[in-house]
């Protein structure tokens, strides 16, 4: 199993000292704005019919970007749009820039019927912002663009455990919800996959120990303490960001 570079793992105390925090944005406000930005990415991506892997890549880029830059300097709509463009290129699911701009404008203005004329000032503002930010995003990511997601690890783990289809579907949904959180810059994909499966098993009342014995988490080379902590973070979003999670 491969893992992400160590430079992209952060403890909570480190995430309390991001560039946004030095601009007076509290940790709680940053988490909320990150979640709003990720909701924006997911909403735009669904309208563009982008695959889940592309949306997941875009959100990882988004979370990594704000470790290096402030929400006060870069609005999450603008960076969200740029992450969509870059992720669609990297995942080879490209969409026309014109279409990305129009859907981003629709979601930003909450008007799905909005169509920007290509010679309009607003269209060019979106275009220039996205293309200008693309270079800044690439530099913030240190040009490390290949992302390993938890989905493949989850399916492999469920198969090895002989878990039910419902268990796999529920855990998959929890991974999708985790995109709104900072889990992807807190833990590697094997921990996220295992925590999503653990939470799903509790939700469905499927006994993981009965499926694989006491140390099932060793199948993905995970520490159970990390799984419990990641599971807590995963579940906390439903109380901390209830309205965002329903969108």
TrEMBL record:
Pfam families cross-referenced by the UniProt entry: Cyclin_N, CycT2-like_C
Superkingdom as given in the UniProt entry: Eukaryota
Keyword terms, alphabetized: Cyclin
Protein name in UniProt: Cyclin-like domain-containing protein
Family statement drawn from the similarity comment of this UniProt entry: Belongs to the cyclin family.
Record-annotated Cyclin-like domain positions: 39-139, 152-236
Lineage: Eukaryota, Fungi, Fungi incertae sedis, Zoopagomycota, Entomophthoromycotina
CDD domains, per the entry: CYCLIN_SpCG1C-like_rpt1 (cd20545), CYCLIN_SpCG1C_ScCTK2-like_rpt2 (cd20546)
């Amino acid at each position: 199993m491969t893992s992400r570079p160590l430079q992209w793992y952060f403890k909570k105390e480190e995430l309390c000292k991001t560039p946004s925090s030095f601009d007076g944005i509290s940790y709680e406000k940053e988490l909320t704005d990150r979640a709003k930005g990720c909701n924006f990415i997911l909403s735009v991506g669904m309208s563009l019919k982008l695959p889940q892997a592309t949306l997941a890549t875009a959100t990882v880029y988004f979370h990594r970007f704000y470790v290096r830059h402030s929400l006060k300097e870069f609005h999450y709509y603008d960076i969200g749009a740029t992450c969509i463009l870059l992720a669609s290129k990297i995942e080879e699911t490209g969409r026309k820039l014109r279409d990305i701009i129009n859907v981003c404008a629709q979601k930003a203005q909450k008007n799905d019927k909005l169509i920007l004329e290509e010679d309009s000032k607003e269209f060019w503002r979106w275009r220039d912002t996205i293309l200008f930010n693309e270079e800044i995003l690439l530099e913030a990511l240190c040009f490390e663009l290949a992302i390993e997601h938890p989905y493949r690890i989850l399916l492999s783990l469920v198969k090895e455990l002989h878990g039910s289809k419902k268990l796999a579907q529920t855990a998959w949904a929890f991974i999708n919800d985790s995109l709104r959180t900072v889990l992807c810059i807190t833990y590697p994909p094997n921990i996220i996959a295992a925590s999503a499966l653990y939470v799903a098993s509790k939700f469905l009342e499927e006994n993981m120990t009965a499926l694989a014995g006491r140390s099932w988490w060793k199948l993905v080379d995970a520490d159970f303490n990390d799984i419990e902590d990641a599971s807590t973070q995963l579940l906390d979003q439903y109380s901390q960001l209830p309205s965002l999670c329903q969108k």
